[in-house]
Amino acid sequence: MKIEEAKKFHKIDTVVIGAGLAGLGAALEIAKGGGEVAVLTKVYPTRSHSGSAQGGIAASLANVAEDSEEMHMFDTIKGSDYLGDQDVIELFVAEAKKTVYWFEHMGVPFSRTEDGRINQRAFGGHSSPRACFSADITGHVLLHTLYEQCLKHNVHFFNEFQVFSLLIEDDISRGVVAWDIRNGGLHIFHSKALLLATGGYGRAFKITSNAFANTGDSLSLILENGLPLEDMEFVQFHPTGLYKHGILLSEAARGEGAYLTNDKGERFMEKYAPQKMELAPRDVISRAEQTEINEGRGIAGKAYVHLDMRHLGKEKIMERLPQVWELAFNYLEVDGTKAPIPIQPAAHYSMGGIPANIKTEVIKDAAGTVVTGLYAAGEAACLSLHGANRLGTNSVQGAATFGRISGTNILEFIKTVNYPKMVANPLERAQRKIDSFMTNKGKEKHALIREELQENMTGHVGVFRNETDMLKLKKIIKDLLERFKEVSIDDKGSAFNLDLLEAFEVGSLLNFSEVIVEGALARKESRGAHYRTDFPKRDDKKWLKHTLAWKTDKGVKLDFSRNVTIYMDRYPPLERKY
Amino acid sequence: MDEQTNVKVKILRYNPEKDKKPFWQPYEVKIEPDATILDILNEIRWKLDGTLAFRRSCRSAICGSCAMKVNGRNILACETPMHRFKGRGLKIEPLPGFRIIKDLVVDLDSFFEKMNRVRPYLLLDKPIPDKEFIQSPEEFEEIREVCICILCGACTSSCPSVWSNEEYLGPAALLKAYRFIFDSRDDAADERIDIVNDKNGIWRCHTIFNCMEACPKHIKITEYLSRLKVKAVENSI
Amino acid sequence: MKKNFKETSKTGALAWLLQRISAIFIFAVLIYHFFVYHCISQGKAPEWADVVAKMKSPWFNLLQFLFLLAALYHGLNGVWMVVEDYIHSRFWRIFIFSIIVLVGTSLLFVGTLTLFKVANINPGV
Amino acid sequence: MLYKRTKFFDFNYRKFIGSWAWILHRLSGLALIFYLTLHIWIINTLTRGSEPFNEVMTFLGSPLFKFLEVGLWGVILYHAFNGIRVVIIDFAKGSLFHKKLFFILTTIAFILWVAGSVVILTHIH
Ligand SMILES: Cc1cc2nc3c(=O)[nH]c(=O)nc-3n(C[C@H](O)[C@H](O)[C@H](O)COP(=O)(O)OP(=O)(O)OC[C@H]3O[C@@H](n4cnc5c(N)ncnc54)[C@H](O)[C@@H]3O)c2cc1C
Ligand code: HEM
Ligand code: SF4
Ligand code: F3S
Ligand code: FES
Predict the structure, then answer these.
(1) Do chains C and A touch (3 or more CB pairs under 8 A)?
(2) 3-state SS class at A14
(3) Quick one: which of A196, A185, A172, A184 has its CA closest to A27?
(4) Fold of the domain spanning B109-236
(5) Which of these, A297, A311, A238, A288, lies nearest to A262 by C-alpha position?
(6) How many CB pairs under 8 A join B and C?
(7) A283: how many CB neighbours lie within 10 A of its CB?
(8) Mean pLDDT in chain A?
(9) Which residues belong to CATH 1.10.1060.10 in chain B?
C-alpha cells in the first residue's frame, strides 16, 4: 500500500513529545503562561510510564525529620558516584521543594502526617526520610493530576501520535513528523520550540521494569540527526524484578525486612554487604544477586534468587506490602505468605540520554553549543542530574522539576523568536522508513531481531560487563542492524498498525544500543551502575568525565572531553561507601 | 515453569479497511502455563500474525491500556494469567459498549470526554498557602481509594446502563467527580454535583455492580456512587 | 456529543428519593395488608361483605388511598426509568410519557372512585 | 470507520449476582405494575355489589388462578426484598456486602414464598 501524503500540517509554537511528568510539566507551565503548546504522545497521557513510579518523590521538606537542601544535595552527589553535575543538582534540590508544593496545590492526594502535612518516608540512599508519597501510587497520582491540569489549561493533545522523525537543520529545530496511530498517515508539526520528553529506554534489555512504550525513540532520532548522546553506558538495574517478567517489586519489601536467599537457602547478602545486608544500595544488591546466579547458586540453577518475606507474617504482608503480594500471586502464582518469591535484577533506569544544559537546552558538543529551539527533559535527557547512578525517588522529581523549568525557559524563548524556515522535504525521512517496512520483501521479523538484541544486551552489558563479552555484543548488534534493513511487516494497513510502530521501535532500540555498548567498552573503570569485572575500580583521574557519543558512517564516535561540574571546595569526590 | 502447553484462543478481529463486521479468528499458541493473556496476544503478534492490534504499555496493571473482554468479562490482559480460566479455551474481545477502531482497540474518546465533563481538576477559591494545604489523614482516606483509578475503562464498558445509553456518564467519570467533590481542598463541589445530578449522570446507575466486578483495582465503585447520590439529594432539597 | 444530553432535567434527585420513600412505604403497607387479609381471614377467599365492612373505616381508607398513590407513583416512575434507559428518540419518549401520565391519572381516578363508592355502600343491601 | 457492536445490551457478558438481581428486579417491577392495573380494576368490581364481586372472586379462585397467584406472590416477594437490598445499598454501605445481602434477603423471600404458597394452594375450592 502506498501511504498518502501527510494529511495534516500543524503550525504550533511549542511541540512537546511525551506526556510523562516531564512533558506534561513543561506543557502546563507553557499553557499557564499563555503560550501555545501541543503534546504528542504515543500512548494516552495517563498511560505514560511515569505512572508506574510507586515509592515517592524526593524533596527535603523536613516534615517528619530533620532535613535540608544540603543533605539532599550531598546524597544525590554521592549516589551519582560523583558523575552528577553539581550546579544542576544544586538547582534541583532547591526546586524540588517548590515542585512538591506545586503538585499539592494542584490537587495531588499525598499521604498525610497526623497534623495534616505531606507525609515522608525513608528511601535507599537518602540520609533522611524525604520521599513524599501517596500510598504506593505516587507516580500515578502525580501523572494524573498533571494531565488534569493540562486539560484545564487547554493544552492541545495529540494522543496516539508516534514521532517518526525530527526536523533539525543547521542546528535549528524546526519541527517533527509524527504518525497518527489511530487513523494512519503522517502529520507535520512546524514549531519554534521542541521538547523531547520520551522517557526511559529499558526495553533494550530482556528483563526490564520498563513499559513497552519505553523504547527511547527520541534518542535514536537524535543520533539520526547527527547529534550526540551522553553517558549512555550507565543503566541502573533494580534488584527485585519479578522473575521472567521484570515487573518491579517495591523496595519496601526489603525495607520491611524481607530476606534475599539463594539455592542453598543462605542469606547471601552476608557476603557482600554484611552491615546493610538487604538494605544496601541497588547496584550492590543487583551485583550480589547476579554473582550468585552466575556461580550457579540461583534457585535450581536458574537465573533467579528468592525474595523471602514469609517470616514477616501474613498480617504484616497484607497490610504493608499488598502490592508485592498481589504481583507475585497474579504473575507467578506464588503466595508470598507461604513461599519465597522468585526475583532477578531488571534494567530499570537509564541515567544517560540526550545531553542538555541546566536550562534543558539540547547541546551538540563537549563545549556545550546549543541546538536552537531544541529541549530535552525527564529520563530521556541527561543533564546530568543522576550521574552514574540515580537515587530512588529522585527521578520522578527530576522529570517533574526539569519539565517545569523547561516550560518556563521555552515560554521565554518562543516569545522572542519567529518560526524557523521549514526544511525542504519534511516528510522524506519518515516516509522512507515506512516505505521500507511496507514494501520490503525480506523475511526478517522485527520481533525476532528485538528478542535477540534484548537477550544479548542483558547477557553482555547487564549488571556485569567485560571486554570480551562486549566485543561479542558489538558484532551481534552490527549483524542485527544489517538484518533490520530487511525487515518486512505483516500489517500493511493504516488503522492502528501496531506492526509498523513496533518495527520502528526496534529500529530505535538497535540504534542507541550500539552507543551503550561502545560507551561501556571505552569506559575502563567501574562507577555507579557501570561495573566492569576487568576494571573493578573507580578511576577519577581518567574517567571523571561525561561520555558523548555520535553515530557516524564509520561507526560510533566517542568524546570524553566534557567535564563534570564539581564544587571542589564543597563536595570533592570521595569513595562511595555505604 | 518452563515447559509449554497448547492454548486455543479465539479473537474477535475487525479491520475497518477490509471487514464489514467483526469475526472470530481461532489461533493455537504454544506457551508457558503461567503466561498472561497479554503474553498470549504478544506471542500471536510476534510469531503468528503481525496484523493483530491491541493496546498495552506498562504490563504491570498500572497504565490502564490493556482492558479487554476475556471469556465474557472485562479484565486487564497484562495482569490476568490464563490459568485463571482453568484450561478452558479463551475468547478475547474488545471492550463492549465502545466502538471498535481495529481488533481489540476501541475508541475511548467518549470515555475521556465524559471524564472532562465533570471538571476533573482541583478548583480553588481560597488563597494558596506558602507550603501545603493542611489535610488530615481522615480526609485523605476519603479519597485514597478512588485515586487508584487507572482510567482503564473496564467499569464503564461493563455497565448495562452504558450499553443502552451512550450518554450516561458512566462509573469512571462519576468516580472522578467523587474524587474532587470529596477532596477537602476543593471548592467547587456544588458545581460538580450539578453536573452529576442529571438524568444522564448519577441517576442512570441502578446499582448493577458490573463495574465493581470489572475494576482491576478493586475500587468499591458502587459504594462511592451511592455516597454521591446521597450528596446530590442533600444538595437539591 | 450526542443529541439527547441537553434534553435532560434536574429532577433526578427527587425522583430517586421518592422512589425509595415510596418503596419503603409500600413495603410497610403490604405487610399490614397481608396480615389483615390473609392471616385474619385465615386464608379463606375474601367475602364481599367482610371487605366492604373493613372499608368503612376512614383511616383504613386513607391508608388505602396513600397506598394507591404510592404504588402508582412508584410503579409508573419505575416504568419511566426503564424507558429512559432504552428509548432515546424524542418522539417515542414524549409518546410513552403521555401514556404513562394518562394511565396513571385514570387508575388513580378509578381507584379513588372505588374507595369512595364502597365507603358509601350499605353492606346490608 | 468505527464499528459499533453493543447496541442495547451485551448478552454474552458474564452475569454476576448484581446483574441478576437487577434484571430480576426490573422484570418483576414491570410485572407488578401490570398486576396493579389489574388489581385496581378488580377492586372496582366491589362497587357493583356483592354479585359481580363474588363472581370474579370465584373465577379468581379457580386452580389456574391459584397457580398464577403463587407466581405473583413470588414476584412481589422478590421485588420487595431486593428493593430493600437496593435501599440498604444506597443508604447503609450495602455495596460492601451486597452479595451477602442478596442471599440473605432472597432466602427470607423464598421461605415466605413457600409458606404463602402452601396457604394459597391448600385453599383451592
Ligand atoms: C516500575 C518503575 C518504578 C519507578 N519508581 C520510581 C519511584 O518510585 N520514584 C522515582 O523517582 N522514580 C521512579 N521510577 C523512574 C521514573 O518513573 C521515570 O524516570 C520517570 O517517570 C520518567 O518520566 P518521563 O516524563 O521522562 O517519561 P515517561 O513518563 O516515561 O513518559 C514518556 C512519554 O513519551 C512518549 N513517547 C515516547 N516515545 C514517543 C514517540 N516516539 N512519539 C511520541 N511520544 C513518545 C510516551 O508516550 C510517554 O508519554 C520508576 C520507574 C519504573 C520503570
Ligand atoms: C414491596 C415493596 C417494594 C419495594 C421495597 C420496592 C423497591 C423498589 C426500588 C428500591 C426500586 C428502585 C430500583 C432502582 O432504582 O434501581 C424499585 C423499582 C421499581 N419498582 Fe418497586 N418496590 C416495591 C413495590 C413495587 C410495586 C408494588 C410495583 C408495581 C406497581 C413496583 C414497580 C417497580 C418498577 C416498575 C420499578 C423500576 C424497575 C427498574 O428500574 O429496574 N415496585 N422498586
Ligand atoms: S474505576 Fe476501576 S475499572 Fe473503572 S476505569 Fe478506574 S480502574 Fe478502571
Ligand atoms: S455497573 Fe453501572 S449501573 Fe451503577 S453500579 Fe456500576 S455504574
Ligand atoms: S499494560 Fe498497562 S495496564 Fe495492562
Answers:
(1) no
(2) strand
(3) A196
(4) Fumarate Reductase Iron-sulfur Protein; Chain B, domain 2 (1.10.1060)
(5) A297
(6) 52
(7) 24
(8) 93
(9) 109-236
